[in-house]
What does this fold into?
Amino acid sequence: MNLQNLLIDPTFNALSISSLVIRVFIGVCFIIHGLGKLGIVGTGNMAGFEGWLKSMGLPFPALQARLAMGCEILGGVLMTIGLFTRVGAGLCLSTMIVAALIGHKGGGYLITNNPPGNEYTINLSAILVVLLLLGPGLYSLDSLLF
It folds into this structure.
């Protein structure tokens, strides 16, 4: 390995390593968020999430809460292990689009605004789009199996 390859050669293993790092970190992030809706981690729970959705006037808040939780956990697991990675990223991206358009509507950009802005959802969405474009990389079950 020479310095030129390390710095500018896109065929260098850096793309697969980058995909691996992004997949694992963003996957675990979404698993934690999904488990938080179950009350397993953090201070949230399903009843609180349903209530928040209901307070915004969304139809079928119980169903939507469970769909969001399922997308986050399943998508997070798929990305973390690198199996059907793009499907997992798409599931999580769908929750971020809904969160940006509905959950953080009117909050501006900064997450520290009151109500919280779209900063977090936009940043997670950008990471998910990069993962959709890059794919799982060589260090994934997708690469091994397909």
Remarks:
- The mean pLDDT is 92.
- The chain has one domain: 14-141.
- Residues 86 and 133 are 8 Å apart (CA to CA).
